[in-house]
Design a protein that fits this description.
The complex is a heterodimer of chains A (231) and B (235).
Chain A lengths: L3 E10 L2 E11 L4 E5 L6 H9 L6 E6 L4 H4 L3 E4 L10 H11 L7 H7 L15 H14 L4 E5 L7 H16 L3 E5 L3 H7 L2 E6 L2 E7 H4 L6 H7 L6
Parallel strand pairs in A: 3-7, 3-8, 5-6, 6-7
Antiparallel strand pairs in A: 1-2, 1-4, 8-9
Helix pairs in contact in A: 3-4, 3-5, 4-5, 5-6
Chain B lengths: L1 H16 L2 H34 L5 H11 L4 H12 L14 H37 L4 H11 L1 H16 L3 H7 L9 H11 L2 H31 L4
Helix pairs in contact in B: 1-10, 2-5, 2-6, 2-7, 3-5, 4-5, 4-8, 5-6, 5-7, 5-8, 7-10, 9-10
The chains are: A alpha/beta (231), B mainly alpha (235).
Protein name (chain B): ABC transporter permease subunit
Family (chain B): Belongs to the binding-protein-dependent transport system permease family.
InterPro entries (chain B): ABC_perm_TupB-like (IPR049783), MetI-like (IPR000515), MetI-like_sf (IPR035906)
């Protein structure tokens, strides 16, 4: 499925152009952090790559496959986790069964995300951090080759953030390709192998993390990292 | 007021005495209306789910028709079923006219559109919430429908209740296709109509009170289930 090649990607909603001729290349391994100001198209880029929406123009090539052909081999964790109106365990059972996975993995997955003791609890009564960990467990239950994360730690406390980062790092260590949208500079520095900086619907910069943070090449990224308002 | 007082007294006396005739009428009413509700749910829920998640040409027309059918006049349904089941009708050979089965058929036709239209709205709202997650999980249409029906189960209970309420209170269709035959097709609503026409208002009111108590009891049971479910954030 990897590498990923994106060329001339355009996404329009009516008269509004959200992504405008975006180009991107991602290698087979690592954790790519996608950053940029609000409205730069980060979440929509993830949905396009995952095949949830169709571009207005351009090409997304997952090693010779269109996005819809590889959606099943990927998983996406949304900023606001969508949990079924069932118990924590039943949320996992649903995915394992729907995807034909071994139902016996439920206990190990819950243990991995620290929710084994909440298995019988209604999922929608979990705290924000717990809900996001369940969403992560559900995503990992599908054995994705690529894991997209759309600001999964937004509005979470530091302990929850670190718990999620640990789970994501474990997945990365097992060879899952991570594409992670965040506004959190500290998180980006901790997690990133490379950084894609979006601005005005384009990739303004794509650099290895050790280069991006001390020496961003584009002015918008410099302003963004410097705490200035970037529009 | 005198009649109401008599009726209350008679109702209590009838219920407490375990009056066989009253019990027979109540049980037949419940049998007919519950059967119609179950069949209407088996038919209406999948239709509601398919329309809820489907995007197809003419969907708006389907929605208009579904909503319009909620207001089907019972006497018209009764007449249509009568024409089909009468000896000269296309289904006359089944010999179902003036049987409880005919009453179940008529009530099912009446409430299936209610179940389909109301469940469509419930399931469409839920699908809006789940759609992206389900697409990401690459669920099939059948998996999606089953998940929606299960997760909306408590809201759909209310939909079923609305159907049951319509069925158990309905008189026009069942009196046409059932004939209000004593010990065979007499249900609470047709008995009330008969007793009223005979001038026996006390018995009619007594039956009405039993009908109201049943309706209240079923509503209370469903509401308590929903409250428990809401406490677990399952609604």
């Amino acid at each position: 499925m990897l590498p990923l090649t994106v060329r001339d990607l355009v996404l329009r909603f009516g008269e509004t152009t959200v992504l405008d001729g975006l180009a991107l290349d991602l290698g087979a391994i690592g954790c790519t952090m996608v950053m940029g100001p609000n409205g730069s198209g980060k979440s929509l880029l993830l949905k396009l790559l995952h095949g949830l929406i169709e571009p207005s123009a351009g090409r997304i090539d997952w090693g010779g496959h269109a996005p819809r052909e590889v959606t099943r081999r990927q998983a996406l964790v949304f900023q606001k986790p969508v949990l079924l109106r069932r118990s924590v365990a039943a949320n996992l059972d649903f995915v394992l069964k729907a995807r034909g996975k071994d139902a016996g993995r439920r206990a190990a997955l819950l243990d991995h995300v620290g929710l084994a003791h909440k298995a019988a609890q209604p999922a929608r009564l979990l705290s924000g951090g717990e809900a996001q960990r369940l969403a992560l467990a559900r995503a990992l239950a599908t054995d994705p080759e690529v894991l997209f994360l759309d600001e999964p730690t937004a509005s979470l406390d530091p302990a929850s953030v670190l718990a999620i980062e640990r789970i994501v790092s474990d997945a990365r260590a097992r060879g899952v390709r991570i594409v992670f949208v965040t506004h959190d500079m500290g998180q980006a520095r901790r997690m990133a192998d490379d950084v894609v900086f979006l601005h005005r619907g384009r990739v303004a910069e794509h650099s290895p993390a050790p280069d991006f943070f001390p020496r961003p090449r584009c002015a918008a990224a410099r302003d963004y990292l410097g705490g200035k308002i970037v529009v | 007021m005198h009649d109401i007082g008599d009726a209350l007294g008679l109702a209590v006396a009838l219920v407490l005495s375990g009056d066989a005739d009253l019990l027979e009428i109540v049980l037949l009413s419940l049998r007919v209306s519950l059967s119609a509700t179950v069949i209407a749910c088996l038919v209406g829920l999948p239709i509601g789910a398919l329309v809820a998640i489907g995007r197809f040409r003419g969907r708006d027309v389907v929605l208009i028709v579904m909503n319009a059918l909620m207001g089907l006049p019972p006497v018209v349904v009764g007449l249509l079923v009568y024409l089909h089941l009468s000896r000269s009708g296309p289904l006359g050979f089944l010999g179902l006219l003036y049987t409880p089965t005919a009453m179940i058929v008529a009530q099912t036709i009446l409430i299936a559109p209610i179940v389909a239209a109301l469940s469509r709205q419930v399931l469409e709202d839920l699908h809006t919430e789940y759609a992206e997650q389900f697409r990401s999980l690459c669920l099939t249409r059948l998996q999606t429908i089953r998940a929606l029906l299960w997760d909306a189960r408590y809201s759909l209970l209310t939909v079923g209740l609305a159907g049951f309420g319509r069925a158990v209170a309905e008189v026009g269709a069942v009196i046409i296709v059932g004939g209000n035959i004593d010990h065979l097709t007499r249900v609470m609503t047709t008995a009330i109509a008969l007793e009223t026409s005979k001038g026996d208002l006390a018995l009619a009111l007594a039956l009405g009170i039993v009908l109201l108590v049943i309706a209240l009891g079923v509503n209370a049971a469903v509401q308590s289930v929903r409250i428990t479910a809401a406490r677990h954030a399952y609604v």
